[in-house]
């Protein structure tokens, strides 16, 4: 269980590679990176938004399929090509009027470190690098791409009394 007052969480921001997709990326013959997605993560993301949480994606990648995946789930804030993630993170919280303690961030590697230190509730998948695990208040029992996003979203929604709390939960 996440040792944090999850009732405060208004936004959850996710990295993609190593969090919403597995760490290994296949390459398409045209050179495009092919990422995996987890269906249960997708369900939880769209449900979280229906229940009033702000979900955002913050990635260094630029693959069009990643943008399409999360926009098709209803995510409005898909920030791609973020070479230095803390810059876009700070813009995101300022634009939405969030304080750091209202934001959960899930990352897995060194490019996520500054954001992990800035947000109130830093979390990571089981296979995150050691520095990110050290910066996290919760390490999921699941690896990146294997449902770790569902794990943290479900905990937040349960803590807020929003998990399976309405008919919104029973459809896409």
From TrEMBL:
It catalyses: 3-deoxy-alpha-D-manno-2-octulosonate-8-phosphate + H2O = 3-deoxy-alpha-D-manno-oct-2-ulosonate + phosphate. It is an enzyme of class 3 (hydrolase). Transmembrane segments: none annotated. Its cofactor is Mg(2+). SUPFAM superfamilies: HAD-like (SSF56784). The keyword Hydrolase applies. InterPro entries: CMP-NeuNAc_synthase, HAD-like_sf, HAD_sf, KdsC_fam. Its EC number is 3.1.3.45. Keywords: Hydrolase, Lipopolysaccharide biosynthesis, Magnesium, Metal-binding. Gene3D superfamilies: HAD superfamily/HAD-like. Homotetramer. PANTHER family: HAD SUPERFAMILY MEMBERS CMAS AND KDSC, N-ACYLNEURAMINATE CYTIDYLYLTRANSFERASE-RELATED. Belongs to the KdsC family. This is 3-deoxy-D-manno-octulosonate 8-phosphate phosphatase KdsC. It comes from Xylanibacter muris.
């Amino acid at each position: 269980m996440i040792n944090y007052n999850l009732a405060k969480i208004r936004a959850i921001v996710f990295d993609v590679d190593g969090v919403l997709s597995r760490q290994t990326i296949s390459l398409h013959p045209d050179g495009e990176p092919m990422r995996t997605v987890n269906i249960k993560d997708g369900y939880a993301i769209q449900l979280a938004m229906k229940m009033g949480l702000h979900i955002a994606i913050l990635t260094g990648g630029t693959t069009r399929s990643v943008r399409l995946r999360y926009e098709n789930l209803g995510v409005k804030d898909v920030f791609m090509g973020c070479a230095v993630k803390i810059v876009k993170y700070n813009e995101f919280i300022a634009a939405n009027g969030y304080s750091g303690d209202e934001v959960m961030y899930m990352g897995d590697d060194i490019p996520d470190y500054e954001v992990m230190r800035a947000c109130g509730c830093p979390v990571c998948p089981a296979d995150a690098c050691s520095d990110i695990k050290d910066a996290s208040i919760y390490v999921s029992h699941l690896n990146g791409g294997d449902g770790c996003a569902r794990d943290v979203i479900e905990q937040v929604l349960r803590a807020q009394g929003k998990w399976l709390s309405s008919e919104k939960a029973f459809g896409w």
